[in-house]
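S., here's the first fold you wanted:
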Amino acid sequence: MTSLSDRLKRLRKINDLTQEQLSDCMGVSPQAVSRWETGATCPDISALPQLAEIFNITVDELLGVDEKKKQKEISDVISACEKKINKNITEEPIARLREALGFYPNNDRLLTCLMYALYAASEDEDLCREYDSEIVSIYYRIQKYSTDNYCRNESKRLMFRHYCDTNRPDEAKRIAAEMPKIETSFERNIYWALEEKERAQYLKECISDDLRQLVWDIWAFSVHAKLEKDSIKRLDRLREGIEKSVKTEFSLKD
């Protein structure tokens, strides 16, 4: 792999620039550019975006990062961390995600996964207070700078839940008002673009998802509606009956 100094020299020559011309563009002395190209010193990290813009490349390309390798590394970290978070293991994923962000500080997917890990850890009241400002900071950072719709929407979901869990209903409602409407969602619209053979399987998956949501809604209503015991029992029987009937009719698995 070539060094940053070698890449800078090659990029300068490819772009037909002298050291003096590059130094004028960067607002530094020609001697500074010369030291960059000999490897005696390196450009300040704040200068990298400007250098990348001059050469019409990304900062990653300027630094010689292999994009496929980078994306695989990021995906591997996220996959491993999510598996642990889903098992209520959060301390190790938080440390690993922070380490990965040291290498890729502006990666939206890593930031979103870290937000998820911090939110999951916040079931502990002490950690909830400790991580609150970081969760909020990541949310606003993603909303301000990210163009990744998944990261923007997932961070909204996590921020909404965190505000609910920390008894900030006004902030939670404000986030909820910014969430996508179900009528415009992928799930409610992709059906029309599917081929005939794909539609049956897709609808079966939708029925499975809708069933889980309906069963949860009935259970939540029985918990929060302050019903008499007999009414709760009737709802439980209704919920169990619906679940059994739908699963049998559509051969759905748990």
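And the second, which I think is the more interesting of the pair:
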Amino acid sequence: MSTKNKMSLSRQDMALKSLFTGYLMVVAIGYMMALVQIQFTHGMADGEMGLSINDIVYSYYGKRSGSVIETKLNGSMKEMVSEQNRLKITNWIHKGANKNDYYDSGIHQIINENCIKCHGPASGMNIPDFTQFDLIVKRAETDTGASFASLARVSHIHLFGIAFIFMFVGLIFSLTTSVPIRLKATVIAMPYVFLVLDISSWWLTKLNPDFAWLTIIGGAAMAFSFCFMWIVSLYEMWFSSYSYREKSNDLLVNKNQVLSKNNECSL
């Protein structure tokens, strides 16, 4: 009983509370930045603001009715190229993405003016190099979504990184005393269960678009558990006082320890 009380968040000294609070604040900002990043990558896949089922389907399963370039030009890259130039590129793709037409119809100039600053070797970004015609033609093929190689790369990064984040958030939350132990254990376990569900859904959606709903469910459940642990932990650290019950338990333990020492001395 004594050990549990001494490890509660409300009883920690100012230094440890500051450490925990600083970590929780920075992680929360990082979580919000991740949501913003998702909006600009996957959230614009259908050309509209806000993450939807179509965004997830287009990102992982692809838009099988068109090419990768078309999907990007009408989605996350929509603001990078004018409507007139988007139409020219689309028509070039529908005519077979011929190499001669690439130069003669002005597509090469459009790509150079609007795309090369990012899709070029000088940018240092891990995206296709549009200075090479063969790579452009490859993206003019039917859009089948994320490749299995990219899914493997992103999956292992998320599994390691997010698991570490929730380990420390869960460790801080485990020191709370206002939440029943069964509920506490459930909330701590939730992020790991739904992290696996979320990442599994990427692979399943790649095979069948009907699994896109699992991505929404997994992400929402992780966000809920994070918010719950974050709010409860900060509340107990700074707004929950050292309770009367905790004081009574500590006094009882101290009294028993004194009596035990007295008995030992009398023996």
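Why I say that: Residues 2-42+146-256 form one domain. The radius of gyration is 27 Å.

Talk tomorrow,
H.
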